[in-house]
Structure formats: C-alpha cells, structure tokens
Amino acid sequence: MAAVTGPHPDPVAPSGAAQRQGAARRLVRFDPTERVVHWSNATLFLILIATGASLYVPSLSALVGRRELVRNVHVYAGLALPLPVLLGAAGRRWGSALRGDLARINRWSDWVAVLLFCTISGHILFAFSDREALGAMVGGRVSARWAARHAPRWRAEVEAAAEAGRAEAAQS
C-alpha cells in the first residue's frame, strides 16, 4: 500500500511492486480510521454472538459457566457497539473518509441497515414483552416456572448441578 503522508494521501498511488513493474495502481479504499472502526465493530459483534449463544444455548451455557460475567460482557459489548462508528466519524481530520463513506451509503448497505435495525428492534421488543426475561437481564435470575416454560433443558441441567452440589456437600 502507498505511504500515507499528510491529511490527504494520494488515493491512486501505486504499490511498490506495481510501481517497479508499471502495473495497475492500487487504490486506497479504507484509511486507518475506517479499518479500526470496522475491526472494532467486528470484534464487538463476535463477542455479542459468542456471549449471546452461550446465554441462549443451554449446553454452551453449562460449558462456559460464569453466567453473570457472560451476561455482563454481553450487555456492555452491546452498549459499546455504536461507539467505534461515532468516535470514528467525530474526528475532524481523521474521520473525514469515514464521514464521506457514510454519506455515500448505497442501497445494499441501506437494506442491511434496515434488516439490522429490525433485528435489534425485535430483540428489544421481545425483551420488553417478557418482563421476567428482561428482569433477568438486570438481576440475573428467573423463576423455576419461567425456566420450565421457556428453557426446560437448561432448568434440568441447573437443577441437576445444584443437586450434585448438595450431595457433594452432604458427603463432606
């Protein structure tokens, strides 16, 4: 990639090999700010997928353990998700390319954004429609009745683990 100097690098500077061979020039598509924003969002999104799966899938939940920590990481990663874009766009000098890209969002990105908005909105509406699940996101606990209705296998695993713990404590 071409050396980046000053606030406005040459967007069509040839790479070293291309320059030597007179081959096609390589275009600078993403500046360092855009790449940091992208990979920060990608990392946060992967954290959300992993923690969400371990909270939702009983076998993963049992494998990971430390449910409260996983829940907290999930919540804070979700809250942090918009920050890289906002910080990247806020920089007067270093956010100019990102702001330019945001201004040129094409139809494909618009549909992806609409789909993402609907998915996140559905997630939030679902949480508000189930008061006990929403309360569990704050307090960490659900009733045994809720667990029997919504996650019976998870409830059975939790109760079996609790029983095994009681049995082990009784033998000590």
Q: How does the SSE layout of this entry go?
A:
Layout (H helix, E strand, L loop, with lengths): L15 H6 L10 H25 L1 H7 L2 H14 L2 H8 L5 H8 L3 H23 L1 H9 L4 H7 L1 H20 L1
Provide the helix percentage.
Answer: over 70%
Distance between the termini: 65 Å
Please give the largest β-sheet. none
Topology as H/E string? Answer: HHHHHHHHHH
Structural class: mainly alpha
The count of β-strands is 0
* Alpha-carbon Rg, integer: 24 Å
Number of helices: 10
Query: Uncertain regions: pLDDT < 50 for 5+ in a row?
Result: 1-8
Shape: elongated
Mean pLDDT: 81
Beta-strand content: under 5%
What would you note in describing this structure?
There is one protein chain. This protein is mainly α and 172 residues long. Among the domains are: 111-140, no CATH class; 142-172, no CATH class. The protein has ten helices and no strands. Helix 2 (32-56) runs antiparallel to helix 4 (67-80) and helix 3 (58-64) packs parallel to helix 10. The radius of gyration is 24 Å and the shape is elongated. The model is unreliable at 1-8 (pLDDT under 50).
